[in-house]
User: Fold this.
Amino acid sequence: MSSDTKFGATPAASRRTVLVGAAWSVPVIAAASVAPIAAAASGVPQLTFNQASYLGVSCGTISGARLTVTVGGVPTPNITVTTTLSGRYAFAGGSTSNTQSTDSTGEIDLPAITVPAGGGAGVAMASAPVSGSTASAPLNAPVRGGAKGAAFASSSPSAPTSTASWSTNTPATAVPIGGYGFYLDGTDVWYRDNKVLTNVTRAVANSSNGYDYVTFIQGGKARGALFSASAPASPVSTDSWSTNTPATAVPLGGYGFFLDGTDVWFRDNKVLTNAVKPIANSANNIDYVTYIKNGKATGAAFASSSPSAPTSTASWSTNTPATAVPIGGYGFYLDGTDVWYRDNKVLTNVTRAVANSSNGYDYVTFIQGGKARGALFSASAPASPVSTDSWSTNTPATAVPLGGYGFFLDGTDVWFRDNKVLTNAVKPIANSANNIDYVTYVQASC
Assistant:
């Protein structure tokens, strides 16, 4: 197939292509949407793409996309229109935005559109800023890529200590859901290239305390499953928590935590109420939730052996503002640009941050003053970091903390402790657990 697709003669995407393309990006729109036709009667410009949708191929180009602007049904010149692209699509030259004015025929010829490696779905959105008129059209390319994993060591961060490919069976449309090697494709859960669960509507996975596990809703019932990397084809054990947990509950993280409205359920027990923005995890042999309750920063720890109530609770509301938001780990919050840890303001001028607790540490990976940084904390002395790290020599200021300790994502590049370690990584999830720093992702291909 030619990588340069001209759409004057290209058939519309098939249903299969549209569904496949939707997996990696924004939902596909069924047809191009335009400003209401009634707007024409009021003298408001109407924007129309020349195609209902545009189909390309991974790493190729889409050419021939065009806009027409009419007022009262008449093509109108000198109307300024800005078109933006999503889903990693870009115009020739790399920009995701293009602004032009209509020519004498009321048309705008858009630059060629570059299809990202791995394909997937996106949207071309056009708007006329003065009038507020808009139009949109889906962008699609069949997904190409493979499920992969990479493990790292902090002592030698420039390259993976090991890699894994799980693409023999795992569909290219599968999306990482956490842990090391877990993916969701439609309603199927895959673990290290094995389809291990079906009929799953929601799922969150993780690896900690020596286990790989997934918490999920299956057939309207709350469930869990533990796995071993040495025998990945089926669960080591399974759990059902559906006697009391509502079918409307959503897996929250950790093993056995669910959220239904503002109620937190743990292994079939309603354990917290009025919980706002809770984050749950299982690490360092603790099952815990960090949340806001009645405007107060709060935490609760649980034990699987007695799940009906917390084994301990913590209140961090003396100093932590009620507007703070949990960011992961046990006791970490972000309020504006301030990071709080167990009622202590520990970092300032932070624009992005992700926290976690694993391998015996409480830690946060963040961007501070445009620089990639990290900090380790101890619950016994929470007022200041035990140690800090700076990874700003090479890591771009535009990078986003990805999870784990020292992982960042810039576009489709993964950085680990100031080293670019992965490229063309789609929807990666990183973590540090079981004494491993790892990334589960889909490697986009052409």
